[in-house]
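Structure tokens please, single chain.
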Amino acid sequence: MSYFISEISAQLIKLEKEKARELRKSRWWHNRLAIGKCYYCGNFFLPEDLTMDHVVPIIRGGKSTRGNVVPSCKECNNNKKYLLPMEWEAYLKGLNE
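Here you go.
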């Protein structure tokens, strides 16, 4: 696993987390949760068992926007951590080998 140095300020992280909290209140997000599908594993869950995940994590420069947040089951979200999509795919491929 490669490591990275984050140059994202604590203030910017706080701002993006605030945006995410507001996005969680939106009808758009509630509609996404109602589908019940984890973006990563494709399994179905109750809405309360899904979390908001940033495809490109905030710590890696991602934003709290509709195009960058997806419903994720807790297991996928915990395993993905701060990985970028390509790194996540490599992680999954390694599990299957």
